[in-house]
Amino acid sequence: MAYSWFKAFHIIGFVVWFAGLFYLVRLFIYHVEANQEPEPAKTILKNQYQIMEKRLYHIITIPGMIVTVAMAIGILSTNPDLLKETWLHFKLGFVGILLIYHHYCGRLMKKLAADECKWSGQQLRALNEAPTLLLVVIVMLAIFKNNLPTDITAWLIFGLVIFMAVSIQMYAKIRRRNKEKMLAEMNQVNQVPQAQS
Fold this sequence. Notes:
The structure is a single chain. The longest helix is centred in the C-terminal third of the chain and has 45 residues, at 152-196. It contains six helices and no strands. The chain is an all-alpha fold.
């Protein structure tokens, strides 16, 4: 029975953890793009994003990570034979990468707060795809274990994930280009009356 409880809360923990990681980097993107806004909107937005980032990181993301890791330890304590499984070694390796990503996001948050972040919105969008790929691999390993499918279906699913990531990047690029075009048109409209006066 303890195994089932640990497993249930492990799943709840990683859902919360991933939700936090997905939204956190999204806030970073908005935070960086706020630099393009005129004052006072720029300062107001950056301050608001900083508050949201801190709350999300400390109230949702970190507790989600702690519950996930603690419940995984509980699962392994009730079933130590799992540690002999090859699939689990790979899964733990990818979770290790996810932990590094999590802590790197914490560093980025501090750099954004200090106005020292050199990442562009586009670079952060690419960074935001990392947890999606890790989620897919970790879940596939947990479900299929040592029988990870390598047939055409698996490759189609992998291709779909890559396609989704590329589509999101393309959409962001088009949206940014349209915004720049609109701002250029607005600047031209504002300059015409000034030239006439």
